[in-house]
């Protein structure tokens, strides 16, 4: 028996209840969750903008301690500190070639796991089966994960801050360092200064980009962007973002990172590019985007990015080392909440009061 935040119906608040969780089967790992980040993807699933079979236990940025392992697990043992990230099949061509973030089964495994036979009967509430989210469902005191999506980490950094590295921070930082891989001195604009965008700002500073232009509608977030490495900021409520970027650079930026998912902002990110520039689209929505063909023909590229094009087993330890070296202060994005206050955390994230809520679990 464990306490969890359950989503029963579209758009409803999370309900804190006791649920049953099975012992791990072959390849599975039972993790006692210390804390878990909250991401906009959780709220998209709650509101069914991204379809997830309900009822479900959401949460996909878990960090905790291995409690029990199933048969055949060799990478971790009870007592290990771990981070829980996205799940992948390990069998498709993309997984075999080191691109698990582009797994052929990514959406079925991470968003619709109750429809996968091996995940169908892992979480229960009153005889009702609950969907497992992102191979973990970490809005709970205990989570069932797989060997594919558990990363062992050293014990010299507090577990309570590490969960956001599993998705939001990994996505923003990885988009810059893994997908774009800019040369020192490259210019970059980051559209949206939430947790993903600000992680991209920190990564751009690590990569030696200059200028680093942060674009948002909240002055407080732009102020934080400056503290984290932005050389210029643009409040797009008060200024035309594209015109301002062209004024700063003279010709546009080499790279753009778009984290809002809004069609109008995606278009701005493309129009802000210099010739040969690349715009990386991270934000999620169902919007259609109209782009000018002449703009694209001038050797500009638009690419989508999943999970920062990251191999978590490699990139998450790298981010931790950068944090320990004082180069990647992602903890400045975090505000802690208890599990009982999870609905307040979601309200604060949606209103912009909190950049990255982290839910700390009580004993149980």
From TrEMBL:
Tell me the GO BP annotations in alphabetical order.
formaldehyde catabolic process
Q: Does the keyword Manganese apply?
A: no
The scientific name of the source species is Pueribacillus theae
Q: What is this protein called?
A: Aryl-alcohol dehydrogenase
Pfam assignment, any one: ADH_N
Recorded superkingdom: Bacteria
Would the keyword Ligase turn up in this protein's UniProt record?
Answer: no
What PANTHER family does the record tag this protein with? ALCOHOL DEHYDROGENASE, ALCOHOL DEHYDROGENASE CLASS-3
